[in-house]
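re the bet — no i am not wrong, look at it urself. input seq straight from the record:
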Amino acid sequence: MRILVVDDDPQILSVLKRGLAFEGYTVDTAESGEKALAIALRTPPDLVILDIMMPGLDGLEVTKRLREGSDVPVLLLTAKGTIPDRVAGLDAGADDYLVKPFALDELLARVRALLRRRQPQDGTLLQFADLIVNTATREVQRAGEPIDLTAREFDLLEFFMRNPRQVLTRDMIYERVWGYDFGGESNIIDVYIRYLREKLERKGRSRLIHTIRGAGYVLKT
């Protein structure tokens, strides 16, 4: 697995490169957003770890440009941990974020979770109502029209598609889609459910992901 680490702090780059290489990953590094985009185009990574606050192209802009042609998982590193800052990162197309300072063990856990979500599972085509998900190509269609999803959005939708008409609790979603305990007060699931609904319900299409108050969410017609 190849990971691209982008940060304008040489010390952070060095620490992350050593830690990731020790875990067996191939690591490319970039000190700027411009260089990161060039590397990603030349040697597409399996995951990008990206600092937000950089001179020139910042992490949010780099994420947006990556999303124009790739669904590679993006883990944002940020010194700002407020909800608006987190939402801005997710809106830009990031799949996860980690607030500085952070423990290397936690970063590695998040990396494993993001990469694990990209591993193929049995059953290439999943269908529910007029929604079709191809788990091999990671393509989604509703009523014959393609729907573009980020890597995290796809993983969340796939979990629902593999468990139709079953109420999925927040704990179940955290464990299966994020791969670790995200914390009881986080609203990240609500954010991603909203993203999915907006994309699946375009052109007035009916709601498929429903909220079960006090219990969780369910995929049903």
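see?? The chain has a mean pLDDT of 88. told u. also The helical segments are 10-22, 33-42, 59-67, 83-92, 104-117, 151-161, 170-178, 188-200. so pay up
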